[in-house]
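User: Here's a chain of 147 residues. Predict its fold as tokens.
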Amino acid sequence: GDVYKRQGINAEYGDFAKMRHQFEVNSLGPLRVAAALAKNLVDHKSKFFIVSSRVGSVGDNGFGTIYGYRMSKSAANMAGKNISIEWKDRGITVGLLHPGYVKTNMTGNAGNITADESAAGLINQMDRLQMDQTGTFWHMDGSELPW
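Assistant: Prediction complete.
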């Protein structure tokens, strides 16, 4: 569970065992990391990020499919939003990030950016996000994404 590491798996509609596993990794994984780190984060200094995916956006879903992956990432977004509310009084900034369409095995190397380019954009967003933006969802390119 590295906070910066993208964890993602894809399953076809109807394979409920795979969907359940996607929820374990993509939804509960970030929540477990948050629970483990909560006491170690420094009030009014720390930031916490969940690398989600744009396909977890309900408002940006234009073509359906990939049910388990979409639903698990949407649940991760909800977890991040909840954490941001609960940690707001501590002054801990929480952000949700989309890495872009990255050339990886998961995308069949069909992405439009490299992993290094994605990582650079994610780090830029992590540096940029401030407390007044806690609980928001961002593309690695700097554009805010809809829930």
